[in-house]
Task: inverse folding
């Protein structure tokens, strides 16, 4: 128990060191932008992993929660002039409330139906953003969103945003590891393995499904708010269902049952289109083939593959 | 000694098939009650009804004097009514120790936030749970394999993990659905020893089992179910001499 | 035009859209009754049918009945391949994995379409032309009528196939009880593949019918697929009559919302409706009343 948590904390420390050294090596601000976007995706996929890999539920609507975080915080700060910190928090609370309400009603559904209910939610949000032009700015988007400030310091540059976003991510990863290595995390895993057996140990299935759903929505909302105040511009296009699908693909590609899988999945798939110029043209082809291939051949994803390699290496050393 | 579980004319049908017809019996505090009967007698259905996975059509179930009507499986488990399964095995992706820790879930006193922030209360509880889980593992003889991935264990040991998982929280009543199924002779004997140990710790057991040898050896009383009806009840010796039981088993 | 005429006009366009939704919904039903999963590539079958047709008809200059037949068979084969090559390899991994594979397939098909046909929308002329019919002051275009007739033909053909043909009966046996069907020696593998062929074919038909009206681009099938799914859920997922009823109902509701309230919020309405149906009565109108379905 403690050993597993310690191991994940050591790995996290390694990641943190790498993250805080990287900006001194990379001087191209474009790379920082890509890394920032990666961090936001990792945050969301990390939440999805709690939902998919731990609670065994599935959602194709998390771009909707991301949109709630982004538009919620952006509109609030634009209309009221409140600090983005406060509006981020308000958007987060709003999303949590809505997700709890949704979770209570739709998490009684299983598999197929749940996928569709979340998809329908995402589409409803998307079309609303497009149509309610007076409020959201419609398809052209919403410009001029104020950045975060720390005292006199305006966190608008890529570098400042880099430190802000990654610090938040590392903190949340730290907390998430606490969670998965506790009775809460075990209850979720038990639920994914067998709902009946879990219930017969006194684990309330519905409660834990809702918990995972709300947490994952909260992570997505947070990512959305940071996205909005970092880029200062958002448009509905970002929050369509394809983004939801991409997020799930990242989770599955990385390894659905593992938080590190989320880091790996989102950390590798987010930069791809930015680094490979030919990627955009073949984007769907690659994503589709990758998703099918991983599911058919490596159900444990990148993380599973990595662990198998590491294990065979260490057992090779022993013998 | 009082009655810990009381069944009053419990009936259940699936479509036209009557799986249970007015089953009534009770369990005394601290006894091991064997529930036997030929295939299709309704034993597993009965366990499922008691644990709340199926809803009875008629009748009442009282647990420590309180009706269980309307309670879902997890609520019954939280009251101290534990069970094992014939087929459902260990939780994948968790170690042996973690599997057993899941069994302590119902005694958790800390909140989600305590674990998310890993407050001292949560750490203390985890430590306490861990030592109790080790005790349960020692009882079933799996302490050395605590850190193994539970799924990688052989079948017999997986069954022990499931047993440890359901007994670790010291439930008032433990329903065992064919715990010896698939075990060899030596493993079955070990199982019998473990169950007797649980009895001395004050646990009440309802044992559904095909291995009559095991049932006759460790049970205080035996209830025989045939075609959804209780056809005999009594000490193992009485049951062995009962003609109706013989008929049911030999199909006369 | 007065209110009544408008109403008729909306009813016609609603019925035509509803017929398309019903066809897509039937594709979902066919798969639900064999492999018991949601096939997310169903909408992309529609897109693929539209693009194949445009190539056969315009680039190769084939007569439209032949072009249509080839397009339908072509997409059917794609459906078959999806089951045979991708889904079967992972069939022991549980429905969740299979659903995700169809999502992967859906993205993949879109990628292929973008690569082969580009990102620009295509359109081809309607298969029947002529003077619009006058009914109650509203006009009914012949291609709208054609959609209704063709959908009806499809539904009847499907019904006859399931009722009377050997593979149709076998598919019904699978829908009733997969394990027993396997145990009595029905070739369930072949039949599952065949159901995907059917699903592909009926998706392609929907494509052929709608493209002359709306055109087709690589992502046309996404929203239409989801609306087809919404129809299937509305009617009771897995039920064939439910799919048709749900499709027509959704088409009509949308037309009325678009006509009398706001065309922009039509889609918000559709998906809110779907969400509410799922939250309140997931079994739909004609579905069985179990609360949870696996």
Result:
């Amino acid at each position: 128990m403690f050993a597993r948590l310690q191991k994940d904390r050591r790995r996290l420390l390694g990641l943190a060191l790498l993250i805080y050294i990287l900006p001194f090596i990379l001087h191209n601000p474009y790379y920082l932008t890509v890394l920032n976007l990666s961090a936001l995706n990792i945050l969301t996929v990390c939440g999805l992993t709690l939902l998919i890999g731990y609670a065994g539920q599935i959602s194709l609507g998390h771009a909707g929660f991301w949109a709630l975080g982004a538009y919620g915080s952006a509109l609030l700060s634009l209309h009221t002039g409140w600090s983005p910190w406060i509006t981020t928090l308000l958007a987060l609370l709003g999303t949590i409330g809505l997700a709890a309400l949704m979770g209570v009603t739709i998490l009684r559904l299983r598999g197929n139906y749940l996928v569709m209910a979340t998809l329908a939610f995402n589409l409803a949000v998307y079309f609303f953003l497009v149509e309610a032009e007076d409020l959201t700015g419609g398809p052209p988007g919403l410009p001029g969103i104020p950045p975060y400030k720390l005292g006199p310091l305006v966190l608008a540059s890529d570098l400042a945003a880099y430190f802000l976003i990654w610090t938040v991510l590392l903190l949340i990863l730290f907390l998430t590891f606490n969670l998965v290595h506790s009775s809460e995390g075990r209850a979720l895993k038990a639920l994914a393995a067998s709902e009946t057996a879990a219930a017969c140990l006194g684990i309330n299935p519905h409660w834990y499904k809702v918990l995972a759903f709300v947490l994952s929505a909260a992570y997505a909302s947070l990512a959305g708010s940071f996205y909005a105040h970092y880029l200062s511009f958002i448009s509905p296009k970002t929050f369509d269902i394809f983004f939801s699908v991409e997020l799930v693909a990242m989770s599955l590609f990385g390894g659905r049952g593992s938080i590190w899988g989320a880091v790996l999945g989102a950390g590798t798939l987010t930069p791809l289109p930015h680094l490979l110029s030919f990627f955009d043209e073949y984007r769907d082809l690659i994503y589709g083939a990758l998703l099918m291939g991983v599911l058919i051949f490596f159900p444990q994803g990148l993380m599973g593959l990595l662990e198998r390699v590491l294990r065979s290496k260490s057992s090779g050393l022993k013998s | 000694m009082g009655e810990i579980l009381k069944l009053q004319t419990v009936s259940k049908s699936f479509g036209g098939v009557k799986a249970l017809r007015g089953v009534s019996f009770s369990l005394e505090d601290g006894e091991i009650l064997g529930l036997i009967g030929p295939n299709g007698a309704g034993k597993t259905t009965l366990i499922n009804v008691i644990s709340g996975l199926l809803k009875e059509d008629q009748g009442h179930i009282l647990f420590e004097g309180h009706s269980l009507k309307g309670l879902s499986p997890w609520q019954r488990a939280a009251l101290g009514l534990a069970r094992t399964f014939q087929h459902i095995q260990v939780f994948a992706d968790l170690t042996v120790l973690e599997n057993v820790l899941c069994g302590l879930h119902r005694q958790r006193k800390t909140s989600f936030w305590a674990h998310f922030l890993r407050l001292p209360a949560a750490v203390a509880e985890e430590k306490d749970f861990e030592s109790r889980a080790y005790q349960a593992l020692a009882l079933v003889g799996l302490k050395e394999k605590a850190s193994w991935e539970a799924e990688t264990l052989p079948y017999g040991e997986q069954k022990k993990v499931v047993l440890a998982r359901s007994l670790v929280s010291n439930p008032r009543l433990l329903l065992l659905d064919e715990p010896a199924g698939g075990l060899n002779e030596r493993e079955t004997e070990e199982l019998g020893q473990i169950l007797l140990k649980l009895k001395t710790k004050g646990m009440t057991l309802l044992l559904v089992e095909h291995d009559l040898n095991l049932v006759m050896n460790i049970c205080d009383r035996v209830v025989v179910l045939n075609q959804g009806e209780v056809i005999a009840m009594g000490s193992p010796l009485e049951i062995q001499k009962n003609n109706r039981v013989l008929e049911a088993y030999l199909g006369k | 035009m007065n209110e009544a005429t408008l109403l008729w006009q909306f009813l016609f366009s609603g019925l035509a859209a509803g017929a398309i939704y019903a066809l897509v919904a039937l594709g979902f039903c066919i798969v639900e009754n064999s492999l018991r999963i949601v096939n997310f590539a169903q909408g992309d079958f529609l897109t693929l049918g539209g693009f194949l047709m445009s190539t056969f008809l315009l680039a190769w200059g084939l007569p439209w009945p032949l072009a249509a037949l080839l397009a339908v068979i072509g997409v059917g084969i794609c459906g078959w391949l999806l089951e045979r090559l991708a889904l079967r390899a992972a069939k022991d991994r549980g429905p969740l994995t299979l659903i995700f594979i169809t999502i992967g397939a859906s993205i993949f098909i879109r990628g292929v379409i973008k690569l082969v046909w580009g990102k620009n929308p295509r359109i081809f002329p309607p298969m029947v032309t002529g003077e619009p019919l006058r009914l109650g002051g509203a006009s009914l275009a012949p291609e709208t009528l054609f959609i209704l007739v063709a959908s009806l033909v499809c539904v009847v053909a499907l019904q006859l196939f399931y009722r009377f043909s050997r593979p149709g009966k076998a598919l019904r046996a699978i829908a009733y009880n997969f394990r027993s069907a396997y145990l009595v020696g029905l070739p369930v593998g072949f039949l599952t593949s065949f159901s995907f062929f059917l699903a592909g074919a009926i998706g392609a038909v929907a494509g052929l019918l709608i493209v002359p009206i709306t055109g087709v681009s690589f992502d046309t099938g996404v929203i239409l697929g989801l609306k087809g799914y919404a129809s299937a859920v509305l009617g009771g997922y897995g039920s064939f009559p439910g799919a048709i009823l749900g499709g027509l109902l959704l088409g009509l509701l949308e037309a009325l919302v678009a006509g009398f309230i706001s065309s922009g919020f039509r889609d918000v309405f559709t998906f809110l409706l779907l969400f509410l149906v799922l939250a309140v009565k997931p079994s739909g109108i004609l579905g069985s009343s179990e609360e949870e379905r696996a």
